[in-house]
Design a protein that fits this description.
Layout (H helix, E strand, L loop, with lengths): L1 H15 L2 H15 L3 H20 L6 H25 L3 H9 L4 H12 L1 H17 L2 H6 L17 H8 L5 H32 L1
Helix pairs in contact: 1-4, 2-4, 3-4, 4-7, 5-6, 7-10, 9-10
């Protein structure tokens, strides 16, 4: 949900919105990108959790609530980076498309987005990286139950939340398992960084 919303917002702001609208929304997006994750977690507990509880007949703590919170969290990151990618496309490419008789939507869909494809993928990967490494917001809404969930709305536990909860009192094999979780997260993060660097090299 966060990916299409973030990319769509960026396309609207760069290609469609008036200067007045852009001056209002762009600073708001930058502000949202700088909000601490615990604020998103609090928003999830107060606003999203009751909604999920109503539609799932549960307490609302679980994977679905965390999914909504993370989707909202990554929107500003994806939007900002996608805007940078779209703004890097020379205006001459758009003007050439218009000169060929293409409409604005045809130019956006068939010219601008393909030209900015690598930058958009870069934005998506970085947004997903933030979601994967998130701890506090997820910790507040996921339920922290280290069991196999029976449904998408059931309480679960994530690697980051489990490490944060258990590290202070763990010992022996338990502590080794937590370090193993940390290694897994490190490998995932390193892989995402590697993907971003490969994309950056292709863009050059």
């Amino acid at each position: 949900m966060g990916v299409p919303l973030g990319v769509g917002t960026a396309v609207y702001l760069v290609e469609i919105a008036s200067d007045r609208v852009r001056k209002i929304i762009s600073p708001a997006v930058d502000l949202l990108a700088g909000i601490p994750s615990i604020i998103y977690g609090f928003f999830g507990m107060v606003i999203i959790r009751p909604f999920v509880a109503q539609i799932s007949d549960g307490l609302g703590f679980g994977a679905l609530t965390a999914w909504f919170v993370l989707a909202i969290m990554i929107v500003p990151t994806i939007t900002t980076l996608t805007m940078d990618a779209l703004n890097s496309i020379p205006m001459g490419i758009r003007e050439a498309s218009y000169a060929m008789g293409a409409t604005k939507w045809q130019t956006i869909y068939k010219v601008v987005l393909p030209a900015a494809k690598l930058g958009i993928v870069d934005a998506i990967v970085l947004g997903m990286g933030r979601a994967i490494g998130e701890t506090m917001a997820v910790l507040m809404v996921v339920g922290n139950a280290p069991v196999i969930p029976s449904s998408i709305a059931s309480p679960i536990s994530t690697l980051t939340s489990q490490i944060a909860l258990d590290m202070s009192y763990s010992s022996g094999l338990h502590r080794s398992a937590l370090f193993g979780m940390g290694v897994v997260l490190f490998i995932i993060s390193a892989a995402l960084v590697g993907i971003v660097r490969l994309i950056s090299k292709k863009r050059r």
